[in-house]
Write a structure and sequence with these properties.
It is built from 2 helices and 4 strands; from the N terminus they run E-H-E-E-E-H. It is of the alpha+beta class. The strands form 2 sheets. The chain has a two-stranded antiparallel sheet with strand order 1-4. Strands 2-3 form a two-stranded antiparallel ribbon. The protein is globular.
């Protein structure tokens, strides 16, 4: 299916991660310090990430790829939010136990 999705220029990308947060579908991730489109079928082609990139590394392309999978994105969002919630709670419990004033960072696998 020919449709509009994003493309990330790795040479321009600084790996700041702002686009990862701006992508509500979870299509963008950081790999080896650079932003990368992780799944074509998660990209809705609306481009919420484009104006957030400080270096202009993100652009639109027309590509023959998988159709946007809204159901998969919804399932990812539910799992991702649940994981973030429990990782945050676990970090706060650990910090309370160690009487630390810092946040511990936990990763969802």
């Amino acid at each position: 299916m020919l449709r509009k999705i994003i493309q990330i220029d790795e040479d321009k990308c600084t790996g700041c991660g702002i686009c990862v947060d701006a992508c509500h579908e979870g299509a963008i991730g950081l790999v080896n310090g650079k932003a990368k489109l992780m799944r074509d079928d998660y990209c809705d082609g609306l481009g919420d990430c484009l104006p957030t990139c400080p270096t202009g590394a993100i652009s639109f392309i027309e590509k023959d790829t998988l159709a946007y999978d809204e159901e998969a994105v919804k399932e990812y969002g539910t799992t991702h939010e649940r994981c973030r919630y429990y990782a945050y709670r676990l970090s706060r419990l650990y910090d309370a136990y160690t009487k630390s004033n810092r946040y511990s960072i936990y990763r969802c696998i």
